[in-house]
Design a protein that fits this description.
single chain; 372 residues; alpha/beta; 10 helices; 15 strands; globular; binds NADPH dihydro-nicotinamide-adenine-dinucleotide phosphate; binds guanosine-5'-diphosphate-rhamnose; NAD(P)-bd_dom; EC 4.2.1.47; GDP_Man_deHydtase; NAD(P)-bd_dom_sf; lyase
């Protein structure tokens, strides 16, 4: 039985990858951070009671800032494969916490690579580094491929640039089987609530159900190549099954704007939108409502406004990937389109919003009885 260690197992990708590896018969170990509340919601459905025999999913407390902790865990687990997905992964937040982002997203990778080297595991343990299309930043070539020059535009991207090169360096200097997956944006119903796609699907579903009055966004003109996280974790695994280590761009080759994603979401909810104004004064107004997903909305209502706080000090305006190498050498292809993924995310967030409405209604008689 192969053994994998995943950093960031409680995150979006970590949860899909853990599921995928378990389905392939792996024993899966994950590093989770200590938190003041439960933080395993994304993996609760695959959690196994550690008291049971033959458990194949095990969690370890740890942090990418802690070299001794990482070295101990890698030494105990003796993994065949390490997937380094843990990160302060929010680009906007990295401008507010640049030093922390550098510590975790750059030096965290070094700490893991050193653990492999110091434990003498370089012939046993294969290493996957979660590199990012943010490396291309201010793009030098379109579409972006493995050979496109990098130009990072945020503390996050600069930290990920270090991790990209230190992974290449350990491959070249110490003979590690180490690969960078240069993944373009990938989303899902498990996407963190502050990334733009999930913010839109969750936010608009809540507005449609009357739980919130309005959604506030930043740059609607940003262009992204969005895929589904389920497809992208499959590519991560495929990279580590090759005969020789190599770096791969993973993308769909299709590009859409944040504004288009907003329109798709509105359409899924039966809302027709009209955009008015421009720049920070741009708004989206309801023109018509059909179906039963948006009972709280009436024509004329403004349900999206711009908040300048969500603009970044340096923006990545456009990203579009060329995954030809992954297609030819790995046989990888995305199975879900961005539009299908949007529909899946809206369905999940609408269900959640409806449950919230029902919970509030159920609470009402008790509140009335209590004189509140
Ligand atoms: P998430 O933000 O959903 O998950 C990040 C994970 O890292 C969480 O499990 C988080 O733990 C963990 N983490 C954060 N800080 C630390 C730390 N100090 N020590 C240990 N673990 C930590 O990200 P995604 O799943 O979307 O992305 C996975 C990786 O891929 C990240 O490295 C990201 O930068 C990269 N990437 C993502 C892309 C995307 O579009 N999703 C595209 C390209 C790259 P907790 O749950 O406790 O917060
Ligand atoms: P990104 O994803 O920065 O590409 O990084 P995000 O969804 O945060 O932003 C995408 C684009 O949307 C614009 N935008 C907004 N973004 C957020 N978060 N909130 C808003 O209100 C908003 N309004 C407009 C942004 O300016 C940006 O242009 C993600 C992360 O998962 C990284 O970890 C990963 O490396 C890259 O994708 C590839």
């Amino acid at each position: 039985m192969k053994r994998a260690l995943i950093t960031g197992i409680t995150g979006q990708d970590g949860s899909y990858l853990a599921e995928f590896l378990l389905s392939k018969g792996y024993e899966v170990h994950g590093i989770k951070r200590r938190a003041s509340q439960f933080n395993t919601q994304r993996i609760d459905h695959i959690y196994e009671d550690p008291h049971e025999p033959r458990v194949r999913l095990r969690l370890h407390h740890g942090d990418l800032s802690d070299a001794s902790n990482l070295t101990r865990i890698v030494g105990e687990v003796q993994p065949d494969e390490i997937y380094n997905l843990g990160a302060q992964s929010h680009v906007g937040v990295s401008f507010e916490a640049p030093e922390y982002s550098g510590d975790i997203d750059a030096l965290g990778t070094l700490r893991l690579l050193e653990a492999i080297r110091l434990l003498g595991l370089q012939d046993r343990t294969r290493f996957y580094q979660a590199s990012s299309s943010e490396l291309f930043g201010l793009v030098q070539e379109t579409p972006q491929r493995e050979t496109t020059p990098f130009y990072p535009r945020s503390p996050y991207a600069v930290a990920k640039l270090y991790s990209y090169w230190i992974t290449v360096n350990y491959r070249e200097a110490h003979g590690l089987f180490a690969c960078n997956g240069i993944l373009f944006n990938h989303e899902s119903p498990r996407r963190g609530e502050t990334f733009v796609t999930r913010k839109i699907t969750r936010g608009l579903a809540r507005v449609a159900q009357g739980l919130e009055p309005c959604l506030y966004l930043g740059n609607l003109d940003a262009l992204r190549d969005w895929g589904h996280a389920r497809d992208y974790v499959r590519a991560q695994w495929m990279m580590l099954q090759q005969d020789a280590p190599e770096d791969f761009v993973i993308a769909t080759g299709q590009q859409n704007s944040v504004r288009e994603f907003l329109v798709w979401t509105a359409t899924e909810l039966g809302i027709t939108l009209a955009f008015e104004g421009s720049g920070v004064d741009e708004t989206a107004r309801v023109v018509a409502v059909s179906g039963n997903a948006a009972p709280a909305l009436r024509p004329g209502q403004v349900i999206m406004r711009i908040d300048p706080r969500f603009f970044r000090p340096a923006e990545v305006e456009t990203l579009l990937g060329d995954a030809s190498r992954a297609r030819t050498r790995l046989g990888w292809r995305p199975e879900t389109t961005a539009r299908e993924m949007c529909a899946e995310m809206v369905a999940a967030d609408l269900l959640d919003a409806r449950q919230q409405v029902r919970l509030r209604q159920d609470d009402m008689p008790a509140a009335v009885a209590a004189g509140l």
